[in-house]
């Protein structure tokens, strides 16, 4: 791998088969946003790409949790022109096109992670950082122009960019980006729920997330063995699932989440969840075999030695530059993988299982126990025991109370500290005003989003005479966190 500098921007390149490929990568993704500004980075990407003329070579752009990437493939002169045009667009975004691009974003309805991974991340991190992958945000038509300007200034400059090339830098290559201050990434985002626990979510199948060292070869191999065992049993033996997948999500220097997720045949969600959990417990207790480890190492060796993996390796090296990680080359990583023993893989997985988060589809009931025999705790954000004394209390509308005993037990309370909502089963949800990350204004009502992903609707359909509660929300929550419901989608 070669390292050069063009206009103050690191350029990483290595020879690869095929035409020249280029990836201009910025260290800015959805996890750098807030719930209120969610979608801003995607808007920036669309605004920049909207300025380009019609091109007759492959080109694209994308946003994920960590990065924004502008990519193209073509002749050297085409690559040079594309990169220069993108850089120039980022220095002078056509902000007058925000309304049009908001409509395009709404039609695209893209996500920065698959729904299962998103729900696992929100379980761990709440409505912030990586946890934002589970949220749709206020809507593309509610992105503040100030957020667009601020994000461009903070992240889209030469000190937060890396260019990747599958060949030497072309003659005349220029990357005219402004100077800027490198973002401070020294502090990992806080973990809200360390685990172990499980909860229901609107997902197509069960999944687990394990928090740990993403560079640990023993944990990597253990997760791969678990995925392969599940593929053999859940899919091939029982015919209950089609897809067994996994992901690695960066959440701070050297740390993050490893996930294992499955879909499930309709009506078999609980059985698939049981097989997933039983497989995880077995791996933590017994570990993999020598043959299983050897098989996974063989697969990774094939991946590392494939000439088409050059772009992936360049991307890994670029990520290390942007986020301050220490990145080893493929051969060094492969050598470390080859040394992993079954006992090391078992210990790494058992240690990570102490942080496990399990999500299962809403209609699936599970009875999962921990390795020591204790039940796996069910997580709920309804953690408060009682409504506060002295708070204003609201009940459901009379018509609802007449029809339902559940409605007769429900209560909403508000004071100058926050909101409390008591469910019919007695659980109380609480969102302190100091931890509000967004308030959606739905006509006379409000929907309040808490940092821990707890959501309390203050709407007339659920509560009678809510005027005083709405006034309290508006008085306590800063104006920049309040927004009108998106015109692009109906209220949930």
| Secondary-structure class | alpha+beta
Oligomer: single chain
Count the beta strands.
19
Fraction of residues in H or I helices: 25-40%
Strand content: 15-25%
- Helices, by number, come to 14
Mean pLDDT: 93
Shape category: globular
Roughly how many Å apart are the termini?
A: 49 Å
* Radius of gyration, whole Å: 25 Å
Q: Biggest sheet, in brief?
A: 6 strands, mixed
Q: Which consecutive residue ranges, at least 5 long each, have pLDDT under 50?
A: none
Strand order in space, largest sheet: 1-2-6-3-5-4
Describe this structure in a few short sentences.
With 492 residues, the chain is an alpha+beta fold.
Structure description:
This protein is of the alpha+beta class and 492 residues long. The chain contains 14 helices and 19 strands. A hairpin with a 2-residue loop joins strand 16 and strand 17. The longest helix has 21 residues. It is globular and about 75 Å long. The model has no long low-confidence stretch (mean pLDDT 93).
């Amino acid at each position: 791998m070669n390292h050069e500098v063009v206009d103050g921007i690191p350029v990483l390149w290595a020879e690869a088969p095929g035409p020249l490929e280029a990836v201009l990568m910025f260290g800015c993704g959805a996890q750098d946003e807030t719930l209120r500004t969610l979608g801003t980075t995607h808007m920036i990407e669309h605004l920049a790409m909207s300025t380009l003329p019609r091109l007759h070579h492959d080109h694209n752009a994308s946003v994920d949790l960590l990065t924004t990437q502008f990519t193209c493939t073509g002749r050297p002169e085409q690559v040079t022109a594309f990169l220069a045009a993108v850089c120039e667009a980022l220095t002078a975004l056509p902000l007058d096109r925000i309304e049009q691009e908001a409509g395009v974003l709404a039609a695209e309805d893209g996500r920065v992670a698959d729904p299962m991974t998103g729900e696992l991340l929100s379980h761990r991190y709440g409505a912030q950082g990586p946890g934002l992958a589970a949220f749709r945000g206020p809507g593309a038509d509610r992105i503040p122009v100030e957020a667009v300007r601020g994000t461009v200034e903070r992240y889209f400059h030469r000190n937060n960019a890396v260019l990747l090339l599958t060949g030497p830098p072309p003659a005349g290559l220029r990357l005219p980006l402004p100077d800027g201050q490198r973002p401070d990434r020294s502090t990992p985002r806080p973990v809200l729920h360390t685990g172990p626990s499980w909860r229901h979510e609107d997902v197509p199948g069960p999944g687990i997330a394990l928090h740990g060292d993403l560079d640990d070869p023993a944990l990597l191999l253990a997760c791969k063995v678990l995925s392969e065992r599940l593929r053999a049993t859940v899919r091939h033996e029982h015919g209950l699932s089609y897809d067994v997948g996994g992901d690695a999500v960066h959440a701070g220097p050297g740390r993050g989440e490893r996930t294992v997720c499955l879909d499930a045949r309709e009506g078999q969600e609980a059985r698939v969840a049981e097989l997933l959990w039983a497989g995880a417990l077995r791996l933590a207790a017994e570990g993999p075999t020598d043959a299983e480890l050897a098989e996974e190492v063989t697969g990774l060796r094939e991946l590392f030695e494939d000439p088409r993996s050059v772009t992936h390796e360049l991307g890994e090296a670029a990520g290390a530059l942007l986020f301050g990680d220490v990145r080893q080359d493929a051969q060094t990583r492969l050598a470390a993988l080859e040394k992993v023993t079954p006992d090391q893989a078992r210990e790494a997985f058992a240690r990570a299982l102490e942080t496990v988060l399990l999500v299962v589809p809403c209609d699936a009931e599970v009875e999962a126990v921990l390795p020591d025999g204790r039940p796996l705790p069910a997580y709920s954000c309804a953690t408060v025991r009682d409504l506060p004394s002295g708070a204003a209390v609201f009940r459901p509308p009379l018509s609802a109370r007449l029809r339902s005993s559940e409605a007769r037990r429900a209560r909403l309370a508000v004071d100058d500290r926050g909101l409390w909502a008591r469910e019919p089963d007695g659980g109380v949800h609480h969102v302190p005003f100091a931890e509000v990350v967004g308030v959606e204004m739905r006509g006379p009502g409000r929907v309040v989003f808490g940092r821990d992903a707890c959501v309390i609707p203050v709407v007339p359909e659920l509560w009678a005479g809510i005027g005083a509660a709405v006034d309290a929300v508006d008085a306590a929550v800063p104006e920049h966190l309040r927004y009108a419901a998106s015109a692009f989608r109906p209220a949930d």
